[in-house]
Design goal:
It is a single chain. The protein has helices at 5-20, 24-45, 59-72, 77-95, 104-109, 126-133, 141-156, 160-164, 195-208, 227-237, and strands at 171-172, 178-182, 188-192. It is mostly helical. The protein has a 3-stranded antiparallel β-sheet, with no helix packed on it. The longest helix has 22 residues, at 24-45.
Length: 238
């Protein structure tokens, strides 16, 4: 029996970080997949995650895990497919490390993704968008920050991860206001800012204060704002 732990460690520390140079968001997504997989395998096989063996992570267990994600966690097919993609990436890595699994790995790689419906995303009207942008009251610290975040999201079409990950070094206010956005797949784009967006951002930087965090947007404790924190803020103003 081949211990699984050394292969998982090498996958995250060498394959993803050094060889593939994946983004922190991709690494975190893969890590969460393996957290769920190891928890499921541990409970099903009645062994701690550190004692799992590679031979135990076979195609039937992976399929059962994916079905469990949908049944107990309510994951949609798209989320299920993301978890499957992470597992397949690991199996491709194992092909060149563990010849003994040469028969087991193709069976996992042959697991098909689940078809997912593409839902139409309803857009806001101009009036609705202005209502959201104007919802934060710019008279207080939180309101100035929230207003800048919403304007920046709207003007730049930023993902939440791109917004909360924006750093002070990525902001240029003179002579032409712009931001450098670090997107998925290590892709970068430089976006000029509208005057109203630049004004909202300047107002926020004027009251942000000096905190150790390099991120532009922080919470009341001076810590970087999280995805969940922004979602709460957005829900409040909506």
């Amino acid at each position: 029996m081949t211990p699984l732990a050394p292969h998982v460690t090498a996958f995250f520390q060498r394959r993803l970080r050094v060889e593939r140079r994946v983004s922190p968001h991709t690494s975190d997504s893969y890590a969460y997949t393996f957290k769920l997989l190891l928890e499921y395998a541990s409970a099903r096989l009645h062994v701690p995650p550190s004692a799992l063996h590679m031979e135990q992570i076979d195609a039937p267990l992976v399929v059962a895990f994916l079905n469990d994600l949908e049944a107990t966690r309510g994951n949609r097919p798209s989320s299920r497919n993301v978890r499957l993609a992470a597992i397949k990436s690991f199996m491709h890595f194992l092909e060149f490390r563990e010849p003994a699994a040469i028969d087991q790995i193709p069976r996992i790689l042959a697991i098909p993704p689940k078809k997912a419906d593409t839902r139409l995303v309803r857009h806001l009207t101009v009036e609705e968008m202005h209502a959201v942008l104007n919802a934060p009251e710019p008279s207080g610290w939180n309101g100035v920050r929230d207003r800048a975040m919403l304007h920046l999201c709207f003007a730049g079409g930023l993902r939440v991860s791109e917004l909360v990950g924006l750093q002070l070094r990525d902001v240029v206010l003179q002579p032409q206001a712009s931001i450098l956005v670090h997107g998925k797949g290590r892709r970068e784009r430089c976006l000029p800012l509208w005057k109203v967006t630049a004004a909202a951002l300047r107002a926020w930087l004027g009251v942000r204060g000096t905190v150790p965090a390099p991120e532009v947007f922080v919470n009341a404790r001076g810590q970087p704002l999280t995805r969940a924190g922004f979602e709460d803020i957005l829900a409040k103003h909506v």
